[in-house]
Amino acid sequence: MANDLPLNDATTLPALGFGLYKVEPEQAADVVVAGVEAGYRLVDGAEFYHNEAEVGEGLRRVDRSSLLVTSKFWGEEEMSRDAALRAFDASERNLGTAIDIYMIHWPRPARDRYVEVWRALIELRDAGRVRTIGVSNFAEHHLTRIIDETGVVPAINQVESHPWLPQHDLRAFHAAHGIVTQAWSPLGRGRLLADPAIGTIAGRLGVTPAQVIIRWHLELGGGLLPKSTNPGRLRSNLDVDGFRLSVDDMAALAALETGERTGTHPDERN
C-alpha cells in the first residue's frame, strides 16, 4: 500500500485515495464500502458531487475511525466567508460525520473572493471543526496571494495532473512551500489507458496501464485520487507496491507531456 505523506500541519495524508466525482448517488454508498474494503483510507468527496448524503450512508457501514473524509466548498452561487461556512455545515450534515479535510474547490479569480474564503477555512481549522485545510485547482499566483495575505500555507493543493499534464513547475512550488500535490484526473479520465507507450511498459511489467500511471504519480512524490465504481478496479488501483518504474520508463512517460487538460484551467472557471 502507498505510503502516507507528511503534511505541513503535522498530520499525514494517505498518498492514494479514491474519488467520488461523477459517482451516481445510488452507487455512492456501495462504492464507499467497496473502497474501504479494498484498503483505502481516504475518501474524497465534494459539495459539487451531489452525493454526500449517500457517501455518508456508506461511511456508516464501515469502520469510520480509520478513514479521512474530504469535502470541498463549491462557491458557484456565492463566493464568500459566510457561504463557505454555510456550505461546510451543510456538507457535515449530509455526510453525518466530521469532515477531516476541507478545501476551496476553485479560486474563481474573477470574483476576487478566494482570500476571504481561505480565511473562513482558517477559522474552521482554528475552531477545531476540521483537521486539515487545503485548496483545489489553485495556480501558483493564487497560492502566493493567499499565503502572503493570511500567512497560512495550504496543506494540500488538489490539481489536474497526469502524464500529459505533469505540472512540474507547480509541483516544484508546492515542494518549496511544504504543500502536498494531490492529483485529480490522475488517469486522464481514462484516456491515457490506451496510450501505446504506457501499454508497452504495462505489458513488460505484467501490470495494468492504470497501475503504471498510479506508480508514476507515487514516484513523483505526490498523492492521487483515481476513481472507479468497479470493486475489482478499486483493488487493482491500490495494488502498486510490487513493482517500480525504471529510469527509462520514467523517461518514456515524461515524453508524453503535451500540456493537454481534461478539465478547466484554474483561471477560466468563474
UniProtKB/TrEMBL annotation:
One of its GO terms (molecular function) is oxidoreductase activity, acting on the CH-OH group of donors, NAD or NADP as acceptor. The active site is at Y49 (proton donor). Substrate binds at H105. PROSITE patterns: ALDOKETO_REDUCTASE_1, ALDOKETO_REDUCTASE_2, ALDOKETO_REDUCTASE_3. Pfam families: Aldo_ket_red (PF00248). The keyword NADP applies. Keywords: NADP, Oxidoreductase. InterPro entries: AKR, Aldo/ket_reductase_CS, NAD(P)_OxRdtase_dom_sf, NADP_OxRdtase_dom. The record marks K72 as: Lowers pKa of active site Tyr. Signal peptide: none annotated. Residues 19-256 form the NADP-dependent oxidoreductase domain. Belongs to the aldo/keto reductase family. This is Aldo/keto reductase.
